[in-house]
Amino acid sequence: xxxxxxxxxxxxxxxxxxxxxxxxxxxxxxxxxxxxxxxxxxxxxxxxxxxxxxxxxxxxxxxxxxxxxxxxxxxxxxxxxxxxxxxxxxxxxxxxxxxxxxxxxxxxxxxxxxxxxxxxxxxxxxxxxxxxxxxxxxxxxxxxxxxxxxxxxxxxxxxxxxxxxxxxxxxxxxxxxxxxxxxxxxxxxxxxxxxxxxxxxxxxxxxxxxxxxxxxxxxxxxxxxxxxxxxxxxxxxxxxxxxxxxxxxxxxxxxxxxxxxxxxxxxxxxxxxxxxxxxxxxxxxxxxxxxxxxxxxxxxxxxxxxxxxxxxxxxxxxxxxxxxxxxxxxx
Length: 331
Hints:
By secondary structure, the chain is of the alpha/beta class. 40% of the residues lie in helices and 12% in strands. Helix 3 (94-108) links the parallel strand 5 (74-79) and strand 6 (113-118). The longest helix has 17 residues, at 241-257. It comes from Chengkuizengella marina.
């Protein structure tokens, strides 16, 4: 599998990242471990989990799976969400991060975390407190690199500036929701990541299963992830006229190429400027194998452009205004 540098670092990660949110829940432990081993055997090295996935069970399973292969793995996990009953068991304070990293290291059965990510912005904790403790963790050897997830552009830029000014380690990556049916990051976050050389690891890369092709217009699902999902991955957010047009294009290309719709969606992401390593999720080994088949072929330029056009955001202010008065150089 091809590898890419993660942001402004020398850390090489596989072009697909294996997500483990389902491990210990919809994916049993045996299949989860098997999935990780198959991924590593095919040249993948990038695994992503979080302290809140299945109340820590996901981290425990990952720890068991990589016990004898730790040096092969770029291991990523996250901290921020509620892990206990009191107020301090959430957030990005020094206390919660210090407690969180030790708990994750124990569950993962390892001495260090390659990429430690803050799961979402914390409005209560000063950014300087968060970045200082993350810098301390890198200095201590418990963490090697840091990243963020679900940040607005100003939150990421403020963090990068604070790190640079104080000579702290900076976020080398961001993990946002991004797919053909979730293009909001194109407004500001993705251009910022390209400008500042921040790696991008999209979650919900096939729209929480919407782009797998198993859903039909006008038929609300009674099972599967979209049936019970809330928030960003809800049926309400997926069931739009634009998204059905996108899915129609995906299905059309898949049929012409003899491929799976999910492979089309992932292939588009792999060739998107600024995207480092889309997160591959699967409930079953069959789903895993189907998604890994993405690496066996590539979209043509015309196919890629067709998908890019149908999924593009409406041109809004201030981008519309900026583009109107963009300067050009006649040489």
